[in-house]
Amino acid sequence: MPKPGELTFAAPRGAVRPPRHLADLTPDERREVVAGAGEKPFRAKQLSQHYFSRLAHEPEQWTDIPAAARGKLAEALLPDLMSVVRHISCDDDTTRKTLWKLHDGTLVESVLMRYPDRVTMCISSQAGCGMNCPFCATGQAGLDRNLSTAEIVHQIVEGVRALRDGEVPGGTGEGAARLSNIVFMGMGEPLANYKRVVGAIRRLTDPEPDGLGLSQRGITVSTVGLVPAMLRFADEGFKCRLAVSLHAPDDELRDTLVPVNTRWKVREVLDAAWEYAAKSARRVSVEYALIRDINDQAWRADRLGRLLKGKPVHVNLIPLNPTPGSKWTASRPEDEAAFVQALELHGVPVTVRDTRGQEIDGACGQLAATER
After folding, report:
1. Which residues form the active site (predicted)?
2. Using 50, 70 and 90 to split pLDDT, how confident is the model at 327?
3. Mean pLDDT computed over 294-306
């Protein structure tokens, strides 16, 4: 039975559960599985070192484990989770989008973006999305299923490996770079897959070799505003950043743009965000996709500024990356500038997000849609 704040969705008919993987399990659970396979429990730590620290995923690379045990341990804890359908790159190859095929044929996407001073990876937490936001390519496709903890984690592990191997150029140095930021802003609503997303955050931030040893402060979790889950997330003790996909300051419009608003209204969502900010001591991000003649009017900017004035918040304005055949498109430059100015007049910090990846179907769900 789900806990309060956890939304569940029926699996597609005939769906097969993802194979159990080391990244799904705590260190104690890994030792139990290894012992159950007839091996010494300390082999679990060796496997964790190979997976998280050495990024050595092929059994023949595990020279500290007897050859006779490698296949058995790989089957028990390191099965194949996903394969690359294709990579596509732009921005002089510093932005790389990957389309993954999961064990059951489901398609998901991730994006690795290397800047001169940082590296950000945008990952998926669900295959598709059930939130039904009409301007979002993923929302148009609907929900296929939740990703497992390991399927979420493996996207980042593969991104770390790609950086180590110099597959994504850029930055101030040559070759390898360290992953700086992870954003749960790919396919899906993270807080609708609550248990697995929380598990993924723990695997990503557990010290090596139990996890990747990344900083919680470098992780951003996005939500359209699932209020009970937001309040539960505030009690986890994380130092992650919470990003609220608001997209409208008034309930009348937000009911249309973000249908879950018919259940939890703008002020309820923001109150939950301030609760998270208070408990985490982290400023909240408000994500706002600027859509021409829909939500970019000056009076809406003023209303948003009044809602956020004096709060621990930063606004990210997102020029809409339109999806093929959609009636929604990006705001005019002059309307975008006026929106920024209106927020600044209220003393609200605001930036316009760098629009990377437009020429490679950058909006989440676009690449997967071309393969359906």
Report:
1. 109, 364
2. confident
3. 98
Average pLDDT over residues 186-213: 98
Q: What is the mean pLDDT of residues 246-258?
A: 98
pLDDT at res. 95:
94
CATH at 64? 1.10.150.530
218: left (phi over 0), alpha (psi -120 to 50) or beta: alpha
Q: Of 41, 57, 77, which one is at a domain's C-terminal end?
A: 77
The reply, when asked if residue 133 is annotated as ligand binding, is yes
CB 269 within 8 A of CB 246: yes
Strand partners, 183: 122, 220
Tell me the catalytic residues. Answer: 109, 364
- HSE toward the beta carbon, residue 140, CA cutoff 13 A: 18
What is the domain range of residue 36? 22-77
237 annotated as a binding-site residue: no
Q: How far is CA 322 from its chain centroid?
A: 20
Average pLDDT, the chain: 91
Q: Is 189 annotated as a binding residue?
A: yes
The SS3 call for residue 37 is coil
Cβ-proximal residues to 233 (8 Å cutoff; 6+ apart), any chain: 5, 191, 194, 198, 221, 242, 276
Distance from chain centroid for Cα 90 = 20
Asked whether residue 240 is marked as a ligand-binding residue, the answer is no
Q: 3-state SS of 313-348?
A: EEEEEEECCCCCCCCCCECCHHHHHHHHHHHHHCCC
Over 60: is that where the pLDDT of 8 sits?
no
Angle at 180 between CA 178 and CA 185, to 5 degrees: 130
- Band (367; pLDDT cuts 50, 70, 90): low
User: Is 192 found in the same domain as 96?
Assistant: yes
Q: What is the pLDDT of residues 201-246, one digit of tens each?
A: 999 999 999 999 999 999 999 999 999 999 999 999 999 999 999 9
